[in-house]
From TrEMBL:
Organism, scientific name: Desulfitobacterium dichloroeliminans (strain LMG P-21439 / DCA1)
Classification lineage: Bacteria, Bacillati, Bacillota, Clostridia, Eubacteriales
Protein name: ABC-type multidrug transport system, ATPase component
Keyword DNA damage found: no
ABC transporter domain boundaries: 7-233
PROSITE patterns, per the entry: ABC_TRANSPORTER_1, ABC_TRANSPORTER_2
Family: Belongs to the ABC transporter superfamily.
Length: 310
């Protein structure tokens, strides 16, 4: 039977003594998806990732990668998974080439693949430099190289942009897109909401050991019903502007100077824009802002906090 999910987590829980770090997690990532796992420090992201990697055994539940369970097919799973931890530790006295060929030997990969991977992560020219002289960003690139050297089907990245400058972050995002186009399924955790908004097809938000929301960006927007924001610059402000807007069906608005600020339901934005642009108002410019991941994240966390304090 064909397996459509690269990763499935079924009712996974993890206890450390009396403390429950992960609570009844259900998670499924389809082949070829990019999934972003978000949450504050201590939300349980690292514990969940360790369970997915087979480094920590769930107290309850099942984790399957391409249909394989760790208890039965540990080695098969490890061949299919690549991992970049938040902090990589390398031997300072080894060069990038020596470091990568070491990992290649461990994984049964040819040295020719090392050349290819160093090129992909932008370290070809630094291949014979000692790793101890590398910047944090260069060490992060070397970490990426060891994570993809065996062409994993599932690539797990823990805070992958840590230590990278803006150019490095942009290049990493392009690498992630390219690996994904080649068929790699990617799970990454991040504190940077922009990374998730730009890259992920599916988003999961963790809090207190639970995934409290997950889905597409559009799906999360719809669930919360957050308004679309419209800003309109006018050439002239009519004396009866408030009456005109109400007659056009605009319910929530205010204006400052010659700019009108409108909040409207997502499904009414086209209707509102058409009404405002019908020629009665002298419109100079119009800007549209859909609720982004930052607004979504903050609102979901507020919901979670209100339930805890209830």
């Amino acid at each position: 039977m064909e397996v459509f999910h690269t990763l499935e987590v079924k009712h996974a829980e993890k206890f450390y003594g009396q403390f429950q770090a992960v609570k009844d997690i259900d998670l499924a990532i389809e082949k070829g998806e990019i999934y972003a796992l978000l949450g504050h420090n201590g939300a349980g992201k690292s514990t969940l990732i360790k369970m997915i990697l087979g480094l920590v055994k769930p107290s309850v539940g099942i984790i399957e990668i391409e249909g394989f369970n760790y208890d039965a097919k540990n080695k098969e799973i490890k061949k299919r998974v690549g991992y970049l931890p938040e902090r990589m530790n390398f031997y300072d006295n080894l060069s990038a080439w020596e470091t990568l060929t070491f990992y290649a030997k461990l994984k049964g990969i040819s040295k020719e693949r090392c050349d290819e991977v160093l090129e992909q992560v932008g370290l070809s020219e630094a291949r014979h430099r000692r790793v101890g002289a590398f910047s944090k960003g260069m060490q992060q690139r070397l970490g990426l190289a060891q994570a993809i050297i065996h062409k994993p089907n599932l690539l797990v990245l823990d805070e992958p942009t840590t230590g990278l400058d803006p150019i490095g972050i942009s290049e990493l995002k392009e690498m992630i897109r390219n690996w994904n186009k080649e068929g790699t399924t990617i799970l990454f955790s991040s504190h940077n909401l922009n990374d998730a908004e730009e890259l992920a097809q599916q988003i999961g938000i963790m809090n207190r050991g639970e995934i409290i929301a997950q889905g597409t960006l559009a799906g999360l927007q719809d669930r919360l019903g957050l308004p679309t924001k419209i800003e309109i610059d006018l050439s002239i402000i009519p004396v009866d502007l408030e009456r005109i807007l109400i007659e056009k069906g605009v319910e929530t608005f205010h204006f400052e100077g010659k700019t009108i600020y409108i909040d409207c339901p997502k499904d009414k934005k086209t209707q509102i824009i058409a009404a405002v642009m019908d020629g009665v108002l002298k419109v100079k410019d119009l800007r549209l802002e859909e609720p982004g991941l930052d607004s979504i994240y903050q609102n979901i966390m507020k919901e979670a906090a209100s339930l805890v304090n209830y």
